[in-house]
Transcriptional regulator, LysR family (Burkholderia ambifaria MEX-5), 193 residues
Amino acid sequence: MRPWSREPAAFPNAWLFNRTTRSLTLTQEGRELHERTLRLLAEREAIEQAAVSARSEPAGILKVTAPLPIGIHLIAPALPAFRKRFPKLSIDLRLGDHFVDLVGEGVDVAIRAGVDTSDAVAAVMVAGRGVGITPYVAASYVKRGELVPLLTEFVEPRSTITALWPQSRRSSPNVKAFVAHLTKVFAAYAADK
């Protein structure tokens, strides 16, 4: 092994890894340095979160992802009231039906809906005796009397809405304010159903 590959400039007197033609492994010094670096990075994250938590008012940009129907019919209509209450906080709302890597994509809050796959609802759909539609899309039409719910005796609660956020954002005032606001929005929606 060439000396320069085992002795990086930052650590000229320590061998951090062993490399062969088939493997690359950390030395004991390399493992210790890696563990210490991970602890330091975690401490850095904790310091950043403490600084963010010290802010009394949410501010900056909050990246939110949600399924398209929930985003259009529940979240988007609730944003003006939220922005009025927290004018220093901008919302970057990303709508789509794909799962995202919260940490990898820098998302602060992910809204997800899980569909109920109960046997009764599935049997109705498979038999062709009903029409399926997302309740978030139809709710305003039903409320105005433009649509009528069908097969209500077979329908169970279809989904649970959850808000997820990375562990590193747990004390963020931005996340706390947004999740509290959505909790009220979703509770009002459930009460109107």
